[in-house]
Amino acid sequence: MVTIILGLIGLSLVVIVHEFGHFLIARTVGVDVEAFSVGWGPALLTHKGKKTEWRLGVLPIGGYCKLKGEDGFRAAIEQKLDFIPADKGSFYAAHPLKRIAIALAGPLFNMIFAVLVFTFVVAIGTTIRTAPNRIVLSSETGTTMQAGSPNPADMAGLQTGDILQSIDGRTIHDYSDLQEIIASNPGKALSVQVLRNGSIQNLVVTPRLDANTGAGVIGVYPWIDPLVSSVKEQSPAAIADLRPGDKILSANGKPIRNTIDLMNSFKATNGPIELTLERNGQNLSTTIIAKSLEETGIAFVSITRTDKASSLPDAIAKGAKESMSTFALTIKSIGLLFRGVNIFKAVSGPARITYLIGTAASEQIKVEGLAGLVPVLSFLAFLSVGLAIMNLLPLPVLDGGLILVFFIELARRRPLSAKTLYRYQFIGAAFVLVLFVVATMSDIFFFTGR
């Protein structure tokens, strides 16, 4: 229940920010707002203001801003009029430039919200837990991304144990840097500088598009030393008397270089595994019973990095830069939808987004208290940028579609007919219905594990 509540709050927040943008600019340019609702459906609570009725809807998902006369084209069709009624203070009575400003305000406020959130995050600092920039080829676990074809890392000549120092001229500090660049560049040939056995190697790797996520992948895992950081109480590792600081040297007599070697040992063994450990300079043996490395209850030592701005101006600059980077990356991700991506897995609907926000928030709060909300805020900023871009698409019903119509009206120097607008909006409604079905099916597949 806590997960659902936190998820709904997060999702609703970015939608309400968007709608408040429409509300504020509409009032500024003289267009009346008949209602502003937090949530959808029948109103649980209402308050009648001077010009606007404030509502709290029964369905706690997002909200809406109802402008006076915004659906005037429907009234024109019903009354068989060629023109849209334009009463004083109504949406279609305003100059096209004012209507464009109102439509732009929602996405603009989402971008402003993202900048503010990213600024806040880098101002207080965010801690990233990751692994070193050393890799293990996933092919060593028998995993390939495409049947009958080697992984991009193997094709590029990368080897297990390589330390990736830079990609396309960008310094790689840790595995999270590597993931970010690889994921955002599917199909692009990337120059990679590798440290191998004390010497520098220059290679070229081309990430392959993962159709299920829309991200680029090359087929590598992080090299994590088998050094125990913590052991979960009453877990198989605790029963086997593993302790923080232990280093796993071998499993069933086979040397263990990293956690991938250990994972492979569990995969290859049906019974108990005998481990050789190094503890306080001494070697000792123990036996652990678990079906997989994940079941052991062992957490391994990771590296942490804190990103924090040096000053408020620096935080604002970094917040704006991160927002623009997210904007560009989201545009690129939309383009990938037309390159063979499985939209039923890559596209998330409101149910999955609510779940992901709520799960991230509840888990982080359990571990770190309120400080755990920092990564959740970053996720909301990403979501806000995505909502801005989606609404700017030049499609009927969306803000971008309205902006396109009003620019056409400016160019023609006369409004479009009511019938034209009605048909345009009807096409948009059909598109949104299709998108809703796809997103719903995607959520169903996600929750059923398909």
Uncertain segments: none
Main sheet makeup: 4 strands, antiparallel
The counted number of beta strands is 18
Roughly what is the average pLDDT, rounded to an integer?
A: 81
What percent of residues are in strands? 15-25%
Instruction: Kindly name the structural category.
Output: alpha+beta
Distance between the termini: 24 Å
Helical content stands at 40-55%
Silhouette: elongated
Q: Kindly provide the radius of gyration, computed on alpha-carbon positions and rounded to a whole number of angstroms.
A: 27 Å
Question: Which strand order do you get reading across the main beta sheet?
Answer: 6-5-7-8
State the helix count.
13
Structure characterization notes:
- The chain contains 13 helices and 18 strands.
- It is of the alpha+beta class and 450 residues long.
- A four-stranded antiparallel sheet has the order 6-5-7-8. A four-stranded antiparallel sheet has the order 14-13-15-16.
- A hairpin with a 2-residue loop joins strand 5 and strand 6 (170-171).
- The chain starts with a helix and ends with a helix.
- The relative contact order is 0.13.
